[in-house]
Specification:
The structure holds 2 protein chains of 2 kinds. Chain A is an all-beta fold. Helix content of chain A is 0%, strand content 56%. Chain A is built from no helices and 11 strands. Classes of the chains: A mainly beta, B mainly beta.
Chain lengths: 109, 115
Amino acid sequence: RKEVEQDPGPFNVPEGATVAFNCTYSNSASQSFFWYRQDCRKEPKLLMSVYSSGNEDGRFTAQLNRASQYISLLIRDSKLSDSATYLCVVKHNFNKFYFGSGTKLNVKP
Amino acid sequence: EAGVAQSPRYKIIEKRQSVAFWCNPISGHATLYWYQQILGQGPKLLIQFQNNGVVDDSQLPKDRFSAERLKGVDSTLKIQPAKLEDSAVYLCASSFPGTATDTQYFGPGTRLTVL
């Protein structure tokens, strides 16, 4: 079983739509959780950390459900510039990071 | 603050040739990672260093890949000999092993094409 699993998509949505991605992880002892964004032919960049209480950054909301071992990312009012691949990342002890395969988002005009 | 530096950015070689990649992490980051990312997949960890010691190299194909971080700062990753399936982006990342919420930062990657 993979450490981190994501729906690869693609999610094709119109501008202004709300879209949500989920991610599941297998290790209940996972320490911390992140969403990264990766543009085509670029390196992954941190989008936001995910806290147990849930957190919001502008149009982006991340939530963590430790009991069910899943993480979600909600994007409201989608922009063309949100088109990218979103990587779910889980951190274990000893600074070990595990990546999902990514969910591709295409925002259409 | 300077980010993670990598070179070269692109490399094209023929199979059975050798290639080396270089990474300079963010200053003060004790943990350094090399990942392989194949198109359409998430990054796969090849090797993780803590200072100049190896923490995890369980997914490094040791018959052809090697990596070192002799002084606990810069690192090199070598492939010898290269195979067609090694065509990928090789990403270097670093992190400061402080709290559980500290994350990692990536360099721009080296795109390797093996012909």
